[in-house]
Amino acid sequence: MNIIILPILFPLVAAALCLFARYSLPVQRIVSGIATHTVLGLVLFLAAGLRDGGVMTLRVGGWPGTYGIVLVLDLLSAIMLVLSALVQTATWWFCILGGMEKETELRYFHPVFLLLTAGVNWAFVTGDLFNLFVSFELILIASYVLLIKSGSPATLREGSKFVVLNVIAGVLFLTGAGLVYGLYGTLNLADLAVKLGRSQHQEMVVVIGTLFLVVFGIKAGLFPLFFWLPDAYPRAPAAVLPYFSGILTKVGVYCLYRCHTLVFRAGVDEWFQPLILAIGGATMIVGVLGALSRNSFREILSFHIVSQIGYMIFGLGLFTQNGLTGGIFYIMHHIVVKSSLFMIAACVILQTGTDRLEDLGGLMAKSPFLAGLFLFAAFSLAGLPPLSGFYGKYVLVLEGIERDQLFYVVLSVITSLLTLASMVKIWMYAFMGGDENARKAALPRPGAAWATFGLVSLAAVVLIFSGPLMNIAETAAASLMDPSIYIDAVHGPVETDVAEVRP
Amino acid sequence: MELLTAGLVFVLFAGGFYLLLQRSLFNVVLGLALCSHASLMVMLAGSGWNVEAGAPILEDKAMVEMVVDGEEVTVSRVDTEQYVDPLPQALILTAIVIGFGLLSFFMVLVARTYESTGTIEAGELPRENET
Question: The dihedral of CA A87, A453, A382, A405: what is its sign?
């Protein structure tokens, strides 16, 4: 099935075309718009075909077995592709409707953003470690440019931190890949799963798996490694933040879900499960405490990314069917809602020129449309009962109680309450309050608010169709729990059943 | 050979991380370069340790037809011990190119930082939006 490669190819070709049209904004917008919407349609089609499970593979160059480059698409990859394409489309509309300065948009935004999405899509479909490395580097170069080109001196400071840390992650990744190749003679994920499963040296699985936990942990912003994230993200241009916040860290989370359920499965019981649970718990609570200490819209939301990645990692750490289901559903909910909140923050910045809470106030009266959107998205994020965040957390908490992980359950409930508290803080400072005069002057609604409205409606869609989406998450989790489906599709049937390594 | 490579990796990583911990951004760039060379050496070690082994240029007569996964392919029946595994070198070449791109970008970033702030000491860069 050659269409798996198209979500990577379309943005790459469009990015090259946009570079040729350097001086014409309309041409760039049209090219980028066509690529964006085609990819969206394509990944929806692919995901619809895979919704009952199953794996599609593409052997690039037609090499037999696992020697060449293999692209693999299973349900989890398809879910991530769809979410990425949705946020990408919303970002495109946001820019078209005036959410970004024309000058910036003309000079570099479209080609670089398309490269970024090509890298992200590549990371989601790749079937081997080296391609994953290359796609990570593509993502990083594109995101450095988007982050740093906005150019205030403070951005340079935080930007350098972001660059250095991520280059270190790349170095560790390469070292890990070198060790893996030296030991097992392959970098293909399915082949590795077979060879590590048979390996006599379980301690090597643990060592290499931990190295990759660090690498993906830096990308995802896990507990001791997250500190670059809340400093760098608030300084990125407001219009690209929805994609940054929603998708980029989730590439790391996706890789953890992929590798630690497939490749490093043999080391799960005695080492990774307690480790990942502890990291998840710490990430949750530290993230939310950081959020409470901050005083600007974007900084608070950036810390919440860290906190919520804790929930996803908690789901992974449970290593059960229900835990993974909850985690995957939480990823779907989080990407849509988090991107919505950042887009609302971007609208507020467009309207008022600032996002510091003490300078804002009375937005409720000035801009009731945005206030309504914020209220819905913020309460979804906090997980108030009828809203979508609740279902993911509910599944995770139930499964945590089932598996006697009460400590982490209590931690996650406390985190939820604190999340609510910091959302109420934004609400009280930015949307309520303000003095009388400030409250009278209604602000014009930016055109870009309609793109935000679109994204928030998606959050409503997640809420309304949470039943079917939960079923999809369950199917995806089932295929993670039984890696033999993935391995058979890529590797061809193997003699010993790898699933037996850990029942 | 093993000891030599391991020692080289150790020295490169140690020097690289020492430079990474310096305050000047220029030293940080050099540190990153050293670290990435260290990781390339680790990768190269994946080729195997046989110093006598040659380049895997196979004669036609050394090849046989075989069926793998239902497809007919040509594989070698030569003694693989005589040859170096070429794949790590191909991977390293890719990694070198990527590393070069990243480093040159970071060098430009450092130059840009110096241009707009007049310093490349990490501690002296301006903190918040007060400019």
Answer: negative
Inter-residue contact A206 to A271 (CB < 8 Å): yes
In chain A the first and final C-alpha atoms are separated, in Å, by 32
Residue among A63, A112, A64, A77 nearest A5 (CA):
A77
Amino acid at A383: G
CB within 8 Å of chain B, chain A residues 176-195: 177-179, 181-182, 185, 187
Residue whose entry in the numeric block shows the structure tokens 């690209």 = A240
In chain B, the number of structural domains is: 1
Is B46 an interface residue toward A (CB < 8 Å)? Answer: yes
DSSP readout, B72-123? EEEEE-S-GGGB---HHHHHHHHHHHHHHHHHHHHHHHHHHHHHHHS--BGG
* Kind of pairing between the strands at B71-76 and B63-68: antiparallel
Assign residue B114 the CATH number of its domain: 1.10.287.3510
**Chain A interface, best mutation among B21, B80, B113, B124, by max A CB count within 10 A:** B113
Distance CA(A292)–CA(A302), nearest Å, equals 11
Q: Which residue stretches of chain A have pLDDT < 70? A: 1, 150-151, 434-445, 493-503
Chain B 76-115, residues with CB within 8 Å of chain A CB atoms: 85, 87-88, 91, 94-95, 98, 101-102, 105-106, 109-110, 112-113
- B117/A153 CB distance under 8 A: yes
Residue A277 located in a structural domain: yes
Contact A185 B43 (CB under 8 A): no
pLDDT in tens, A420-474: 988 888 888 888 876 655 555 666 667 778 888 888 898 888 888 988 999 999 9
Closest residue to A148, CB basis, from B88, B91, B109: B109
Instruction: Give the distance from residue A408's alpha carbon to the nearest chain B alpha carbon, in angstroms.
Output: 35
Q: Do the chains contact at B88 and A64, CB–CB below 8 Å?
A: no
Output the six-digit token pair for A135. Answer: 């796609």
Which amino acid does the sequence have at B29?
V
**What secondary structure does DSSP assign to A158-173, as a single string?**
HHHHHHHHHHHHHHHH
Boundaries of domain holding B15: 2-48+85-124
- Is A417 a domain residue? yes
ipTM over 0.90: no
- Which neighbouring-strand residues pair with A296? A356
Rounded to whole angstroms, how far apart are CA atoms B102 and B92? 15
pLDDT in tens, B31-87: 999 999 999 999 988 877 777 777 777 665 566 666 666 677 766 666 667 778 888
The proportion of chain B whose per-residue pLDDT surpasses 90, expressed as a percent, equals 33
Q: Which backbone phi and psi does A295 adopt, to 5 degrees?
A: -125, 20
What's the total number of domains in chain A?
Answer: 1
Where b means 16+ CB within 10 Å and e means fewer, A280-299 reads bbbbbbbbbebbeebebbbb
C-alpha A171/C-alpha A266 separation (Å) is: 25
A500, part of any domain: no
Round to whole Å and give the CA distance between A126 and A68.
Answer: 12
Residue A70's domain spans which residues?
Answer: 2-481
B76 contacts in chain A (CB < 8 Å): none
- A223 domain residue, yes or no: yes
Q: Which residues contact A165 (CB under 8 A, 6 or more apart)?
A: A218, A225, A228
Please report the pLDDT score of residue B69 as a whole number: 66
Helix/strand/coil for A70: strand
CA–chain centroid gap for B96, Å, is 5
Residue B44 within any structural domain of the chain = yes
